[in-house]
Design a protein that fits this description.
Largest sheet: none
Number of strands: 0
Order of helices and strands: HHHHHHHHHHH
Structural class: mainly alpha
Distance between the termini: 23 Å
Shape: globular
Number of domains: 1
Helix content: over 70%
Mean pLDDT: 85
Radius of gyration: 17 Å
Oligomer: single chain
Strand content: under 5%
Number of helices: 11
Low-confidence stretches: none
Length: 253
């Protein structure tokens, strides 16, 4: 992988991580377009550059993480994902991330579900409107929904947001909570993968990883601000349509 390819993939990661379109799927498909094989380093790269997106959330929301009420809810939601992710790590990395078919089907079906959900969902008047007020039982439920995103193409943000809406959170609240929950989730996934595989990296690969990290960080700042502005007046139907079209296009190619 060249530095330019790393930067391109970092831009893809930063832009897609917090949108309901699956950053993992886009990284896998973008790698195919760039002619990159799914080597062990490539798989680790696609996980590790999420640290850039994590840093953007920390920069924008660091005050939230100093609030014990918010932090306790984020940790509670992370626990189900952490347990399931640790148990299925080898299956996800060695089998699911190698399957382009799974990625495309997950993109397509996720797009259909996103559209259908938005057409049927109506936010209740008593929807939870503050992160600090989310019941802990609902936090566990959100964590379980997030666990579905271990399937490449599902979208961590999409699964978390839809799960939160089903459980009775307001749209703005679950979008913000999804950002916060991304930090321990992606941090744990990245550090665990680096712990397992960093010893196999050659010196030049660390520079490539750093370039992807920086570009991911910069673009993620823009993506977060875009999504916060978007959800105030729009649904996620356009993202569902996009998922279907991109899956169909890659299947045709």
């Amino acid at each position: 992988m060249t530095l330019l390819q790393s930067i391109i993939l970092g831009v893809v990661e930063g832009f897609t991580e917090f949108l309901p379109i699956s950053s993992t799927a886009h990284l896998i498909l973008a790698s195919r377009l760039l002619g990159l094989e799914q080597t062990e380093f490539q798989k680790s790269f696609e996980i590790a550059i999420q640290l850039g997106a994590i840093l953007s959330v920390i920069l924008l929301y660091w005050r939230k993480f100093l609030n014990p009420q918010v932090l306790a809810r984020v940790i509670t939601a992370f626990i189900p994902t952490g347990v399931i992710g640790f148990a299925l790590y080898k299956v996800v990395k060695n089998y699911l991330m190698d399957s382009e078919g799974i990625v495309l089907w997950a993109l397509f079906l996720g797009g259909v579900l996103l559209i259908v959900f938005e057409l049927l969902h109506r936010e209740s008047d008593d929807a939870v409107a503050d992160v600090e007020a989310i019941p802990y039982a609902k936090c566990v439920g959100i964590g379980l929904f997030q666990s579905i995103s271990m399937i490449p193409g599902v979208s961590r943000a999409g699964a978390t947001i839809i799960g939160g809406l089903i459980l009775g959170l307001s749209r703005a609240t679950i979008v913000e909570f999804s950002f916060l929950l991304a930090v321990p989730t992606m941090l744990a996934a990245t550090l665990y993968d680096l712990y397992k595989n960093a010893a196999t990296f050659v010196p030049g690969e660390f520079g490539v990883l750093a370039a992807g990290f920086v570009s991911s960080f910069v673009v993620a700042l823009i993506a977060i601000k875009f999504l916060l502005a978007y959800v105030r007046t729009n649904t996620f139907i356009p993202f569902g349509i996009y998922r279907i079209l991109i899956a169909a296009a890659f299947a045709f190619l």
